[in-house]
Design a protein that fits this description.
alpha/beta, 14% strand, globular, binds beta-D-glucopyranose
Length: 395
């Protein structure tokens, strides 16, 4: 397993950014790994910083095999959520549970209602991928009163005491990887610096957007400061660069206006920090519509269309967070809760209220250099890569 530092995320605590970044100095290797992230060594948002690995712990009380588990997921803004829904359905069934999987397609209110209905229905564990992890306090308190353990999936549930565990990939490592990939890609294909870039960040209501953005900017800001990178729009804050709702249409609209506002008269766009694949494809479409060559663009989620784009030499990079891995981890936790067995964690993540025992998996960086070999064998992404002309030509 690679040695690296992970981070205790500091949701909504801008002043604590320096602490966040201090714990966020891992460097990507680009190699395939599905091993869990290592123990965090960073400070937390509280004065009593935690640097230890959580001890194995039991959660809740054992319950009957075959009981129903409630899984509440956000809008399908990227294919990982759709895949997670499928893997939870089939995985819980294979493990002998009933499950109810619901997507909050219309947003926070719908998710609040779905979770309340699951509590009324008597689910034994709640697994929540939040639309907005700060808006579920009442529902989580109700779950606590009903004795229902809560596992936050992919996105943290913030500023609440009523969360038992968090399962995700290492979001700060992802931001680091994106920042470093952008620099690497620029050096490889865009001649000598300075390079013109633009920055995009995720939806402000998603707690993941902050570590993605901050940990990418940890890499990029020094290069902006020393003049290696130019940002012609001047838009670099998380607020200025946000993509509300993670909607590709919002990213495309913003990129269209950046192209017309700042990239006329022969100003070339060399690179774009994009936090995920749907946004990256929208950004590339916008640049192509403006008549410029593809810039170096980062991404995340290893979506099929993006794997094809990377193999074809268009999008520069993505990050694979195989949903079979984190959904399997959640299902194993639920099995342990059902049987009263201790659960193993490998990190603490602060949710603004306390350090939450967490299990963080290691993301895999993917570029054209490793697209044919780095993805987990048999995964959707690996099968998609294998079917491309590029990978066929590589043997
Ligand atoms: C997830 C990403 C995803 C984004 C938009 C984030 O919370 O971590 O994998 O691309 O939501 O759906």
């Amino acid at each position: 397993m690679k040695s690296k530092k992970t981070v205790t995320a500091l949701f909504g605590l801008g002043a604590a950014c320096a602490l966040l970044l201090a714990g966020c100095s891992s460097s990507p290797s680009g190699s395939a790994s599905t091993t869990p992230a290592s123990t965090p060594t960073s400070a937390t948002s509280t004065p009593s910083a935690s640097s230890s690995t959580p001890p194995p712990a039991t959660i809740g009380t054992p319950f009957a095999a075959g009981a129903t588990i409630g899984i509440s997921l956000p809008q399908k803004t990227s294919t990982n959520w759709v895949q997670a829904g499928q893997y939870f359905t089939t995985g819980f069934q294979a493990a002998g549970f009933q499950s109810v999987v619901e997507f909050a397609d219309s947003g926070v209110t719908e998710q609040q209602q779905q979770i309340e209905a699951m509590i009324q229905q008597g689910v034994k564990v709640l697994v929540i991928g939040a639309v907005d992890g700060s808006q579920l306090g009442t529902q989580l308190a109700d779950a606590k009163s009903a004795g229902i353990p809560v596992i936050a999936y992919d996105r943290m549930l913030t500023n609440t005491p009523d969360i038992d565990a968090y399962v995700s990939f290492d979001n700060c490592q992802i931001g680091n990887m994106q920042g470093q990939a952008l620099l690497r890609g620029l050096a490889a294909s865009q001649g000598s610096s300075p390079w013109n870039i633009e920055v995009f960040s995720g939806s402000p209501d998603d707690s993941n957007s902050t570590p993605f953005y901050q940990c990418a900017m940890q890499v990029l800001q020094p290069k902006i400061d020393d003049g290696t990178l130019k940002v012609p729009s001047g838009q670099t804050s998380q607020q200025q660069t946000a993509t509300q709702g993670w909607l590709a249409s919002n990213a495309q609209t913003r990129m269209d206006s950046l192209m017309s506002g700042y990239y006329g008269n022969g100003t070339k766009i060399n690179g774009v920090l994009s936090p995920n694949d749907p946004l990256a494809r929208a950004i590339l479409a916008s640049v192509e519509a403006a008549g410029q060559a593809d810039p170096v663009v980062t991404g995340m989620d290893a979506e099929d269309l993006t794997i094809q784009s990377i193999a074809a030499g268009q999008q520069y990079q993505t990050i694979d967070k195989d949903p079979t891995l984190d959904t399997t981890e959640v299902i194993q936790m639920v099995q342990a809760i059902q049987q009263g067995q201790p659960i193993t964690f490998n990190a603490y993540q602060n949710n603004g209220d306390h350090d939450v025992p967490s299990y963080l998996l290691t993301p895999i960086e993917v570029t054209q250099a490793n697209v044919c070999t780095a993805l987990p064998a048999g995964s959707d992404a690996a099968n998609t890569a294998a079917a491309t002309d590029f990978c066929k030509s590589q043997g």
